[in-house]
Amino acid sequence: MPLLIGSHLSVAGGCHRAAEEAGQLGMKALQIFTKNNNQWAGKPISEADRASFLAAASKNKLTQPISHASYLINLASPKPELWQKSVDSMVDEIRRAAYLNLAGVVMHPGSPTDGDREAGLDRIAKGIDAIFQSISSDGQSVEVKLLLENTAGQGNALGWQIADLTEIFRRSEASDSLGICIDSCHSHAAGYDLTCESGLDRLIDELSVDSLLGRVVAIHLNDSKKPAGSRVDRHEHLGLGHLTLDGIARFINHPAFRSLPMILETEKGENDDGVSWDVVNMDVAKGLYNS
Ligand SMILES: [Zn+2]
């Protein structure tokens, strides 16, 4: 099967613009923000925008398009006001995603700014329960999954150890509505050294606890500007960072990952030859993929 690769694209001019651009660039996967990622509220998605988005996604055969939640959301926050705002905002994000028939909304698990991991994990699980209680309270069933993304582990951010994700699944009553998004840059920066087989093996082994591996439904495919274990989140173009081409090849060809939609979150713009970086990165990935 072909590599289902795409990237995070801008929705300037409407959500449909991203789905159309994905087609123009030959993408098979897509991630968007359904609203400004640095704001709590977004204006409603118009019916016309929705219709054009669905038509373009279908025409371009985009596999399980997803969105990424606002960076302001922090379900691990010890501040009740911020926690509640995060819950309300995720409810809105999931509703918007459902309106566009997206498969999931990627969310960083959260950062307990008081440094208390245990309490932070509890607050995340309670937040997830509150989100899905709110969504089901209006009688609508929603297929959209909330996708917990593993992180690089900057500051107090949870989710850099796969065990954090396992705990959230265990503690949440709405775990059926959860999925996982694995980011290659974050994995490497968090200490799962993808340049060697043992690093990828450890990632897979830890994901196999409680069978979470089967809940991984999307991949963020990024190289890392920072070395393994740095706990610093800086994305790099494929093959130009610390993952190395070997490491990227091993990652994208792993049986657990190779058939999943893979999203580039690397810098936009063009290389010295005037070729879009998204196209350059997609070509690198396709070249490494054993089809
Ligand atoms: Zn990511």
Structural notes for this entry:
The protein is α/β, with parallel strands linked by helices. The protein has one domain: TIM Barrel. 39% of the residues lie in helices and 13% in strands. The chain is built from 9 helices and 10 strands. Strands 1-2-3-4-5-6-7-10 form an 8-stranded parallel beta barrel. A two-stranded antiparallel ribbon has the order 8-9. The model has no long low-confidence stretch (mean pLDDT 97). Zinc ion binds next to loops.
Give short descriptive properties of this protein:
291 residues; two-stranded antiparallel ribbon; binds zinc ion; 8-stranded parallel β-barrel; 9 helices; alpha/beta; single chain
Write a brief caption for the model.
The chain is of the alpha/beta class.
Helices and strands in order, then pairings?
Elements: E1 5-8, H1 15-24, E2 29-32, H2 47-59, E3 66-68, H3 80-99, E4 104-107, H4 117-137, E5 145-149, H5 162-171, E6 178-183, H6 184-189, H7 197-208, E7 216-220, E8 223-224, E9 235-236, H8 244-253, E10 262-264, H9 277-288
Parallel strand pairs: 1-2, 1-10, 2-3, 3-4, 4-5, 5-6, 6-7, 7-10
Antiparallel strand pairs: 8-9
Helix pairs in contact: 1-2, 3-4, 4-5
Bound molecules: zinc ion (ZN).
Give a short account of the largest sheet: 8 strands, parallel, barrel
Question: What is the CATH level 1 assignment?
Answer: Alpha Beta
Strand order of the largest sheet: 1-2-3-4-5-6-7-10
Instruction: Give the overall shape, derived from the CA principal axes.
Output: globular
Q: How many runs of DSSP E, i.e. beta strands?
A: 10
What kind of oligomer do you see?
single chain
What is the mean pLDDT?
97
Q: Which H/E pattern describes the elements?
A: EHEHEHEHEHEHHEEEHEH
